Amino acid sequence: MSIEGITTGHEERFDWPIFTNTPQPYILASVPRTGSTYLSHLLWRTGCLGAPLEYLNFAPTGPQGAASNSPAAQVELWQRAIAHRTSPNGIFGVKAFPLQMEELGRANPSLLAIAMRLLLRRGPASKIVQLRRRDKDRHAISLARASLSGIWRAEQEVGASDDPSYSEAVVLRARHELAIQEQAWQQMYHETGITPLVLWYEDIVDNPDGAVAHVADYLGVALDPTQTVDVPEIRQQDQTGAEEWRARHKEGGSRG
Questions:
Q1: Is the pLDDT of residue 221 over 60?
Q2: What is the pLDDT averaged over residues 136-153?
Q3: In whole angstroms, what is the distance from residue 27 CA to residue 126 CA?
Q4: Which pTM does this prediction carry?
């Protein structure tokens, strides 16, 4: 399951042997352009914290897009993820954005119910790791640029067309959209009584090992260095254009 030759991590060669018991699940809760793919691969690399990818994302252009119009195939992919992406110590993680969950609720409500029964089966004691960004301007600019260019990964920059022109309106709209999605997670915590572990992207960049240790402690997992696995490389996108946008945005005055 690749996107135009890009290794997404959903390929079978990254599977673990089938896990037959009930896993200990957690959600890696985030919103777009927060660095969640980077964090997910840090956790996955340990071999002890599952492989938290977007197993409930069936967007047509994504790695599971072949199942976008088949609820039955989506259920099969979910079941397969639980079986093959639960680390040998029984930890299963799934990365999710609120908009993905809303779309799944519309397109395949029975699968969403199945997934939530597993992920939230411990009620208020269920585990959610939330990733956020402190720098709201950079976050909004990142989403705005990706939305305009269609470039979401460093691999897509090769041979890309001209950089998108700055648009304050698009940046402000992106900031508003991100705030709505952040609020959706807060509403979920209010309704379920779950206390998430909140991590900040900026802290993870400064101390990735420390972030992994925080997650392991939150989940009650002892990391075993002998269990580390190879995962796809995650490269940061070129930031030149983003910094130019940020300078333009500051000239106009940061808002909100």
A1: yes
A2: 82
A3: 9
A4: 0.90
- Residue 159 has a pLDDT of 58
Amino acid at 14: F
Q: Is the pLDDT of residue 255 over 50?
A: no
